Each structure stands twice: as structure tokens, then as C-alpha cells.
Please model this.
Amino acid sequence: MPTIEKPLIAIVGATSKQGRSVVTALLQSQRFRVRALTRKKDTSAAQSLEALGAEIVTVPLELGHQKDLVAALKGADGAFLMTPPIAPPETIEAPLGRQLADAAVEAGVGHIVFSTLENVDKVSKGTKYAPHFTDKAHVADYIRGLPISHSFVMLAFFYTNLLEYYVPRFEGDTILLPIYLPEDFRAPFVDPLTATGPVVLEIFSNPALYNGKTLPIVGDVISPREMVEAFQRVTGIKAEYRNAFTRDGLLRHFPEFAANELLVRELLGMVEYAVEYGYYGKEHDLDWSRRLNPDTLNWERYLRSTGWRGDKRSFGL
Ligand SMILES: NC(=O)c1ccc[n+]([C@@H]2O[C@H](COP(=O)([O-])OP(=O)(O)OC[C@H]3O[C@@H](n4cnc5c(N)ncnc54)[C@H](OP(=O)(O)O)[C@@H]3O)[C@@H](O)[C@H]2O)c1
Model:
């Protein structure tokens, strides 16, 4: 009797926080085969995906490699597409995203899921500078015009930003948490490592249902004051909020950012946008991903499950 093969899903940026979550959820479901695209095969991150059962394919994630991308996506029933972190003045994010989508169309992929964000430029009428949001929105607009079934995920601010980039420091017995939002402003946050996969699994399990849809992925809607209180409660360490959302605050706590003025403008623009307009457009149901996956971690459960006590963490394995 012929065996029916499980659908194959290709994951761009498979070793990223989002990508690893998707690979893990798809393989754990035992309903999909996974092809993990990476720039390098011999890293521990790639090897750990291989150990989970993913097929590893090396391909450059840069402009001018359409042919390689088409070859890497050939035969896939679905593809998860994301663009890596790209700091200004580099401006390749929109063309890179379009190239990924074009390659998926050329390879004959059945359904794509692109990780996008809101169009800050449009929403703020050009007053806020956050190209890593707007560029993704431009890619999403481009994908809407392509002859391919598609969905979008839109992730909240990552909890991991505080562990990776806005790392706290001790002053005596007190830990100071410089957070890039005003103390009482509630913003959506999420753990990309555990929350992305279940949503993308749901989409690839029902692509027709989610065709054309944008799905927000949210773990908590929480203010810095509440984050610091939860940190104290969970760790037992005395903790205080510090402002890293104004230029002065940001550069006082993270003087290294001053080396890239455009990056400073982008970080401030992103935060001003979130505070003044809301991180997500009002049309989104911010509870959807938590109803879908009741195990989605809120901030307090994230702290408990990771055991984070304020140390700097890196997520490249
Ligand atoms: N931080 C937030 O709050 C937040 C919120 C929503 C969306 N986002 C978006 O999420 C994306 C980042 O996702 P992530 O944090 O999951 O990624 P990540 O963990 O930083 O990993 C990025 C991956 O992309 C690959 N890569 C290819 N070219 C790269 C390059 N030039 N620089 C760095 N990595 C490169 C690397 O894989 P290989 O080495 O295996 O090729 C790496 O594993 C960004 O586009 C960001 O704007 C972030």
C-alpha cells in the first residue's frame, strides 16, 4: 500500500526564536515534516533542529539568492517566512521579504505564513520612524497581491528583549530594570520561543480557514510597573523600574546605543508609536492566540518557567 507522506513545511530563519518554536511545534504534532533553512549547517542550533527530526538545508538569507531560495523551498506544501533583525542604516528588509515571497511562489509552495508588523509609517502619517515595522507591512502588502495562499502572524514585543538587549543591572541588593516603555503603559508582550509554534501549527493545519488573515500572537498585556512587581514576587529580588523610553533614559542605561543614531531614532520611534497609537491596530483580537493555546505564558509564568533572575541571556544556541 502506498504511504501518504505528511505535508512538508519549510521554515526560513529556522534557528531564530520564532523559527525554533515553529519547528518544534510542527514536529511535535507528528502531522508535518519540516525543512529547516539556515545559513550554516554545522552550528549547534542547526544540529539541535536536526536532532528533533528536521531536514537541514543551507541557504543564504540575503538579497540576490532567489535561485537558491527557490531550490530550498521546492516541494514544500507550506513555508514560514521571517526576516532577521536588521539594524539601520541597512535597508534590505522589505526587498528580502519580497524575495522570500517570490521564491515561495516560484517554488510552487501551497501556503505561506509571513511574520509581519503594523505599518507605523501609515498609521502615524509619517511622524514615527520604525522601519523594522513598516518594512514588514510593505512585504505583507506585496504578498496580498501574489498568487499564493497566505496568512500573517504579528508577534507582540518579546519578553526576551529584557534578557537579550535591555539587560538589568544590580545596584547593591536591588536590581534596576531599564524598560523601553513608560512605567504605567500596558503593552502586549509574548515569548516568541513558546508562543509562535502553536499558532503557526494551527494555521498550517487549516490553511483555507486562515487564508488572508493576520493573527496576533500575545502572551500578556502588561505595564513595566506590573512586570517589575512580578519579577520581585517570583525571584524574591528587590527590583526597581528605570526609564529607557526617552532618549536620555535609553542612553543613560545603554550608552552603547549612541554609536548608531539611526537605531536610537528607530527604538524611540517604535516606542512613541506603541504609546500614542497602540502596538496593534484596533481590529485585532488580542485574546485569540491565548484562547487557541491556553498554555501561552504570561510574564509571571514566563519568569517561573525560565528561572530568569536578571542575567543576560543569548538565544543563539
Ligand atoms: N524583539 C521584538 O520585540 C520583536 C517583536 C516582533 C517582531 N520582531 C521581529 O522578529 C525578527 C527577529 O526574530 P527572532 O528574534 O526570532 O530572530 P533571532 O532569534 O534573532 O534569529 C534570527 C535568525 O535569522 C538568521 N539570520 C539570517 N541573517 C541574519 C542576519 N543578518 N543577522 C542575524 N540573524 C540572521 C539566523 O539564523 P542562521 O544563522 O541559522 O541563518 C538567526 O537564527 C525581526 O525581524 C524583528 O523585527 C521582534
In short: The pocket of NAP is lined by residues 13, 15-18, 38-40, 45, 61, 82-85, 117, 132, 155, 157-158, 161, 192, 315 (CB under 6 Å). The chain has a mean pLDDT of 97. The domain at 8-306 is CATH 3.40.50.720 (Rossmann fold).
